Amino acid sequence: MNISEEDITLFNLTLRKYSDYDFSDYSEKSIRRRLAKVLVDQRMEITKLLALIKRDKEFTEQIVKDITVNTTELFRDPEVWHMLRFRVLPNYKGHKKINIWHTGCSTGQEVYSMLILLNELNLFEKSNVYASDINSDVLDKTLKGVYKYRFNINYLDNFDKVIKENPYNFDDYNDVPYSKYFTIDKVKDTITMHKFLRDKISCKKQDLVKDENVFYRKFDIIFCRNVIIYFNHKLQNKVFHLFHENLFNSGHLVLGKQETMRGGISGNFEKHGQIYTKKR
Q1: Is the pLDDT of residue 244 over 80?
Q2: Is 0.90 surpassed by the pTM of this model?
Q3: For residue 76, what are the CA distances in angstroms to 109, 140, 148, 155, 224?
Q4: What residues have CB less than 8 Å from 235, skipping those under 6 apart?
Q5: Are residues 140 and 95 in the same domain?
Q6: Of 8, 28, 222, 264, whose CA is between 20 and 30 Å from 183?
Q7: 18-36: pLDDT as tens digits
């Protein structure tokens, strides 16, 4: 499916006029790829898509959900979690509370990864964990905490690397059973997170293009992984400023493996791998 620059412009203008969404500051490359997939899946031309957006709000919501990317996994990029476990989170042992925000949380595996790690470090009870996404469907999945076993089976290796192993001391091994945190049912092909983890999460719908901090509090750690890669430089900077304003001094912003912070805003952070610490 060939998507022209004019198609993208018309799509953005129509979406902005007939809905509450604005994708004009998303990466053109990303929009072109996702829009092409949507048209193929819907088996329609761009003109029909635009006509439906103009008159069908339910259809528009579905198109927005289809265009936004929802991929996540348990303990994605273990080296980032190693840094959190051994370099970042120990600094919060003396804190009375820890506020953590997962933006663009998708279906929530990252949120559960953090909750599991917090529990292993005896920081669970003092932590407040918040999750947001533009897609209300994935927020529902986050709160339910039920995932496909066969799809996620390879990611259990990540659990082992982060929770059981210590890359800085190979003699330090914690034989933590999966059953401590979730139930695996191979017949039903499900992994179900335990209730005490599910009950810890507060979710709200949020569009990073136009919404401010929907939780109205400051944070010690903000996750925004594999989200800004789909934004252009202007929108990335806007979002980074939002995070900077809503982090405590010495708070941490965690980005995805292929993401980086550029421009003047980067001077307000110290970079350690994919973790950016707000300067005092």
Answers
A1: yes
A2: yes
A3: 9, 21, 16, 8, 13
A4: 25, 26, 208, 209, 228
A5: yes
A6: 222
A7: 999 999 999 999 899 999 9
